[in-house]
Design a protein that fits this description.
Elements: E1 10-11, E2 20-30, E3 36-46, E4 56-59, E5 64-70, E6 73-74, E7 78-81, E8 84-87, E9 93-102, E10 112-116, E11 119-123, E12 142-152, E13 158-161, E14 164-171, E15 175-187, E16 193-196, E17 199-206, E18 212-219, H1 228-245, E19 253-259, E20 266-267, E21 272-276, H2 289-304, E22 313-314, H3 320-340, H4 345-367, E23 379-380, H5 389-422, E24 426-427, H6 429-439, H7 449-452, E25 458-466, E26 471-479, H8 485-488, E27 497-504, E28 527-531, E29 535-540, E30 548-551, E31 560-562, H9 567-576, H10 580-603, H11 612-623, H12 629-636, H13 641-647, H14 653-670, H15 672-681, H16 692-708, H17 715-727, H18 731-746, H19 752-764, H20 769-780, H21 790-798, H22 808-821, H23 823-826, H24 832-845, H25 849-856, H26 867-883, H27 887-897
Parallel strand pairs: 2-12, 18-19, 19-21, 22-24, 25-31
Antiparallel strand pairs: 1-23, 2-3, 3-9, 4-8, 5-6, 5-9, 7-8, 10-11, 11-16, 12-15, 13-16, 14-15, 17-18, 20-21, 25-26, 26-29, 27-28, 27-30
Helix pairs in contact: 1-2, 2-3, 3-4, 3-5, 4-5, 5-6, 9-10, 9-11, 10-12, 10-14, 12-16, 13-14, 15-16, 16-18, 17-18, 18-19, 20-22, 24-25, 24-26, 25-27, 26-27
The chain binds tryptophan and zinc ion.
């Protein structure tokens, strides 16, 4: 591999224990925007389990070293350098005090200590603590922290850090202080402080064992009216973790703080979670149903980290999925339980479908490109580039498979053992697997391959029915197909795949399941087959009629299933499968197949036509009032353009767009009356409700509106959308109406109604940054046309006074929306999208490498596109490679070009 020559590659195989340990940390901050002084007093000792080192090597970045003392005496043998501080010939056990300065006002990377909106915030994961003070900034060095904050009382009236408040008071010269103590040992990446003009929504609740807890959601004063939902989500999270996993909040106080400049979604700092405002602030006027759901999920996610991540943390960053995969699984289960409890399978399936859609569109794509890596990577250049779909989403699927194999109770036993063994420790993915295995009396050696092998497994299925013997055999074969080179070299052998299956009879009902060798049929009509060899045959006996197989029910493993269903069989499954996930899946298979055929035709200029049976299958779902609105909305939504393009031998975004638009128009025109009826029937008059039912109605109604906007004559749709825009009492309906107006207008190069609504939207929400983000995003993702390509609108918006490249949410709302969520426009044949992309990656690289590297990834699949596009992409990648400075972006573009 090319990277063996590069000295900057960090390898899992090179893990060694730290030469020193740090037991306690006392931090003192004098907070001043352009020159903050940090004094750090540590108890340091040699690690008895590590080999001897005379010198102590501490990490540090962008720090100005002031001085060091050892056991109270000035220490002359301290040398600051580009990567940190070296202290020569230190004692075995000593107190070390270091003083250094940093410049939060100039810190645009949003890693370490920075200023946003005049307030101070920190972000330390993964390696930001070293930008605050010199330290052994690695997660296997765990210490207890006390933190003293000093600052101007008028400018920074609120001073927060991890844990419990010990004391606070005034100082001379208009300054004040606060002292915080976190009683739990933690790695440095969980350190946090916040200082500024903030207010909190507060609530006191009793935890399971009856202890009173103070909960706070801190925001800027004008946002206090948007904190209720985050608070409710926090309370629900606390209850859920007690009920489902017996895990209680371990601090007297739990704080969430919202900040508008933030690189990711949120951060689980001990007792002081810091959130992107996008995942905190919501009221019906400003936030959509999706926003409400995302807030619940992210609040849950960060809260659940308190046990899975904080109490038990990662030994090293290769183990990242130990906390992230597990915590995503927990937040997915939390959301499903909130929507449907433990038993409402249809309501739970909605969440499952949404999660699988993300996995297949984003993680499968990652696995097919140059960034493909196992859930537990073997190497990295920049760890920030490995907060990926694979680590998070595939990691969650891997955790889910334990639960599928052992059941909810078996999974819970494994979790209990994991905490019993490892509370307070920094551990590995292997430790987690061993706990699950031991608690369930199983050998899970083979299961380790889910952590070490990259690429998306394929399972092909062949079935045979023997009517005379009443036997039905299912032959499963596993492999990886044509994997990306990055993935291929990790693939060593077959996986243990929990393969859930049901058999469906002629009447649409599940048949009883009895495997060969069993004395009777099992109670459940879904069986989880443990598929562990390259090829394996499972035979069902006493099968009275030839069944239709329902494969990989509830998506029981993150694999691609290959089976030759006929269109009629898929329509039958869509109408009857008792597994709601597979019902949806049948519709998606049907649509995907049709759309790919059409895209192939569009690519070669052959006229398009759509089979009537597909229209009929959609019509049945549309008019089936026994199905929940949210399920119908999911089933009627076509696979995304990005997903479809990824399925082609050579990705052709223009052809995919043409095919998908053709089908949307055809479904709109053929079923116009039905769409209109659904639109009327699922209105939600009266006060806004954030319940799953109400949001299901809105989702289906707004999908109907989007189809109506495709009609050859959209006049009626434009009237409806304009009226909906004007009268909406919530953002879900208002944004959907605006989007429908924009798309209806695209065919005519714009419309008065669309422009008026856009202008109104801006004026109405000028003071709400998160809504203005939507205003940018809606325009960046709109459909284009020959007269006015979207790139022109995007370039114009770059000069809008509200645009700001330094704010990640704003940069994402315009630049990422265009480059990653509008494929047909971004991949314009003239290469204009790629030139724009290169300019923005280069500009962002100088401001915020983490954000720049995310944007850089939107061209990583360039080799999979049609030759006409490939060249333009390569040119753009080469331009970026020759100009960027950060390790973050370099790793991405160099891997893409290798
Ligand atoms: N650990 C955080 C989470 O998943 C995410 C995170 C990692 C992060 N690195 C970050 C957030 C940098 C902000 C900035 O919950
Ligand atoms: Zn996380």
């Amino acid at each position: 591999m090319a990277d063996t020559a590069t000295p900057n590659v960090i390898r899992r195989a090179d893990y060694a224990q730290p030469a020193f340990l740090i037991d306690t940390v006392a931090l003192e901050f004098d907070l001043v925007p352009d020159r903050t002084v940090v004094r750090n007093t540590m108890r340091v000792r040699r690690n008895p389990d590590a080999s001897h080192a005379a010198n102590l090597e501490l990490m540090g970045e962008q720090l100005e070293f002031v001085g060091a003392t050892v056991d109270g005496a000035p220490f002359a043998n301290a040398h600051a350098h580009e990567h940190g501080l070296t202290l020569d010939n230190v004692p075995d056990n000593f107190e070390l005090t270091l003083t250094s300065n940093c410049n939060p006002a100039e810190n645009t990377t949003l890693s370490g200590l920075y200023v946003s909106g005049g307030n101070f915030f920190t972000q330390c994961e993964a390696e930001g603590f070293r930008r605050i003070t010199y330290f052994l900034d690695r997660p296997d060095v765990m210490a207890t922290y006390t933190v003293t904050l000093r600052a101007s009382k008028t400018d920074y009236p609120v001073l927060l850090s991890n844990g419990n408040l010990l004391e606070a008071g005034d100082l001379p010269d208009g300054r004040h202080f606060a002292r915080w103590e976190d009683p739990f040992r933690k790695p440095s990446y969980l350190f946090a402080l916040v200082a500024g003009k903030l207010v909190a929504l507060e609530e006191r609740v009793k935890s399971g064992s009856g202890k009173e807890k103070l909960l706070q959601v801190w925001v800027e004063p004008h946002d206090l009216d948007k904190t209720r939902h985050a608070m409710d989500s926090l309370i629900n999270s606390i209850r859920w973790d007690e009920g489902r996993f017996g895990l209680e909040l371990d601090l007297d106080r739990f704080m969430i703080v919202a900040v508008s400049d933030f690189n990711m979604g949120a951060m689980e700092n001990k007792g002081l979670n810091i959130f992107n405002t996008k995942y905190v602030l919501a009221n019906p006027e400003t936030a959509t149903d999706t926003d409400f759901a995302n807030i619940e999920a992210v609040v849950g996610h960060e809260y659940f980290h308190n046990w899975t991540g904080n109490r038990v943390t990662c030994r090293d960053w290769f183990q990242l999925s130990l906390k992230e995969g597990l915590t995503v699984f927990r937040d997915q289960e939390f959301s499903a339980d909130m929507a449907g409890g433990a038993t409402d399978e249809a309501a739970r399936a909605t969440k499952r479908i949404e999660d699988v859609r993300v996995l297949r569109q984003m993680q499968f794509a990652e696995d097919a490109g140059p960034m493909a890596h196992p859930v537990r990577p073997e190497s990295y250049v920049e760890i920030n580039n490995f907060y990926t779909m694979t680590v998070y989403e595939k990691g969650s699927e891997v955790v889910r498979m334990y639960q599928t194999l052992f059941g909810r109770d078996g999974f819970r036993k494994g979790m209990d053992l994991y905490f019993k063994r490892h509370d307070g420790q920094a551990v590995t993915c292997d430790d987690f697997r061993h706990a699950l295995a031991d608690a369930n009396g199983r050998d899970l050696a083979q299961f380790e391959r889910w952590y070490s092998q990259a690429g998306t497994p394929r399972v092909s299925v062949r079935t045979k029915y023997d009517a005379a013997q009443q036997r039905y055999s299912v032959r499963l074969t596993q492999g990886y197909g044509e994997a990306a080179p990055a993935a291929r070299e990790t693939q060593k052998g077959p996986l243990l795949i929990p393969f859930a299956i049901g058999l469906i009879g002629n009447d649409g009902r599940d048949l009883p399941l009895q495997l060969e060798g069993e004395t009777r049929a099992s109670d459940s009509t879904t069986r989880v087959l443990e598929f562990a060899q390259t090829e394996q045959t499972f035979t069902f006996v006493n099968v009275a009629q030839e069944p239709l197989p329902s494969l990989l029910r509830n998506f029981s493993a993150p694999v691609i299933v290959e089976y030759d269903y006929s269109a009629d069989q898929l329509a039958f499954l869509l109408a009857h499968d008792s597994d709601p996930f597979n019902r949806w899946e049948a519709g998606q298979r049907l649509a995907t197949r049709e759309l790919l055929t059409l895209a192939g035709r569009a690519a070669t200029g052959v006229p398009l036509q759509l089979d009537d049976s597909v229209v009929a299958a959609f019509a049945r779902v549309l008019t089936d009032e026994t199905l929940s609105p949210s399920f119908r909305e999911l089933a009627l939504m076509l696979p995304s353009e990005a997903y479809l393009a990824e399925q082609m031998a050579e990705s052709n975004p223009a052809a995919v767009h043409a095919a998908r638009q053709f089908v949307r128009k055809r479904l709109a025109n053929a079923l116009g009356k039905d769409w209109l009826a659904v639109y009327d029937k699922h209105r939600t008059p009266g006060a806004y409700e954030a319940t799953p039912e109400a949001s299901g109605h809105r989702a289906l109604k707004n999908l109907a509106l989007s189809y109506l906007a495709e009609l050859d004559d959209p006049a009626e749709a434009v009237r409806l959308a304009s009226a909906q825009y004007d009268t909406a009492n919530n953002m879900t309906d208002r944004a959907a109406a605006l989007s429908a107006l924009l798309n209806a207008a695209a065919a005519n190069g714009g419309s008065v109604e669309a422009q008026q609504a856009l202008d109104d939207f801006y004026r109405r929400f000028e003071k709400e940054p998160l809504v203005i983000d939507k205003w940018f995003a809606l325009q960046a993702t709109q459909r284009g046309n020959a007269q006015r390509p979207v790139i022109e609108t995007v370039r114009k918006l770059m000069a809008h006074p509200a645009f700001n490249l330094k704010n990640p949410n704003r940069a994402r709302s315009l630049i990422f929306s265009f480059c990653a969520a509008n494929p047909a426009q971004f991949h314009a044949e003239d290469g204009s999208g790629y030139a724009y992309w290169a300019d923005q990656v280069i500009a962002l690289d100088a401001i915020n490498p983490q954000v720049a590297a995310r944007l850089a990834r939107s061209l990583e699949l360039w080799r999979r596109f049609t030759p006409a596009l490939r060249e333009g992409m390569r040119t753009a990648l080469e331009k970026v490679a020759s100009q960027v400075k950060s390790r973050d972006v370099r790793e991405i573009v160099e891997k893409a070009l290798a």
